[in-house]
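TL;DR need structure tokens for one chain.
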Amino acid sequence: MGRRCVQVLPFLLVANAALIHYGVVERPAGKAAGSGAGAGADTTAQHSQGHGLADTATVLLGDPRLRKLGLVTMLYFAPVYGVISTMLVYLTAQFGFNHAEGASMLAAIGCTAVVACGAGIPWMTSRGLHARHIVQIGLSSLCCSLAALGCGWQASHFYLSAMFLGWGFTVMPGVNALVAEAAPPGAQGAAQGAIHGVKALTEGVGPLLFAGMFGLVGGDSRAPPGTPYLIGAASVIGALIVAGTIPAPPGHGVQPARGADGAAYTRK
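>> reply
TL;DR here they are.
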């Protein structure tokens, strides 16, 4: 089973690339008609037209920050989609979870994600945390979730894993904010599209990789049954390391100097 999944992987990569190129990425909208529009029409057409797969890849790989964000997205979403696709099957097969327990696990993930994204992110930003810090917090939570899922042996461990997984969903809003900071004004759409193209790629690759790992672990291997989740945790640690090297924008965290009247001014 594991070998079969690995053999399917190249075809899935090609299919995902075609989907990103023809389905996810917007195609050019064409030139504006009419000679009276002049330069304004050309500018409008330039901002409204999409980018192909090669263009978005150029935007993503041409900037060091965007390149790192693309790597973080890949290392993050592959385990996320792997967990989502295999967690309930794993808990049912290894620990005898029933339908009610599986539903309560999903409810715990969903409720925690709502609290984390709806209240946690606004609270963290109000405290002056940069988007990079929010990404690091989310990655740390996901790493704890995968470790608890891979090493746990009783229900309380898995519910703790579910709550950590919910906080892990704060990563993508932080990544989107970092992409908006890093991309030039004229390439915002291409940069965001490239990042979400990487995400779309992992939607197929992540579950396939986890299925292959579970197929290998389930054979004659002496590895613990939760080994794929520990490998996923290692992937998230790699994303955490890469995220730590992304610089904050200039001036972040620096309070402006103020004169005797309390007005802010800039030192020269």
